[in-house]
Amino acid sequence: MLVHPKKRPRYQIQAPLTSLIDIVFMLLIYFLLTTNFMVDEGIKIKLPHASAAAPQTRQEITVYVDKDGRAYLMDAEVALDDMFARVKAMIGSDPDRLVVIKADREVILNKAVKVMDIVKAAGAGRLCLATEKGL
Question: Looking at the domain assignment, is residue 3 inside a domain?
Fold first, then answer.
């Protein structure tokens, strides 16, 4: 009588996945937390608060007015005399393009209104004043 010995199942090698899963979750948490704190770099201004602020999604022309009354077109400082020509060139043939004025809340109102008048005279069909969402 021929007896065959029982075949033992071979041991399977398993990599420890617990530490790998922990590292993946830590990376996920890290990226979730850091993406919430990304801030646009730009001119230091404090926007006034408004309770009905709505975010804009379309590409717009941004004009900053800091608390000393200096005007910035996008990120470059521009003299008020040159503002008209530069905004007119940026608007081009699209009079419906949005121009956003971001004026510091401590700026003298006359200087912000002067910038708004120049932008409106340059052909801006849509003009808005940026605010921060209040509580």
Answer: no
Residue 128, domain extent: 49-133
CA 24, CA 27: separation in Å to the nearest integer? 5
CATH code, 110: 3.30.420.270
Per-residue pLDDT of the chain (135 residues; tens, 9 = 90+): 567 777 777 777 777 788 889 999 999 998 888 876 655 555 566 767 777 656 655 577 888 888 888 888 888 888 888 888 888 888 887 777 888 888 888 888 888 888 888 888 888 888 888 777 665
Single pTM value for the model: 0.55
E strands, 13-86, are 49-50, 61-65, 71-73, 76-78
In the chain, the number of structural domains is 1
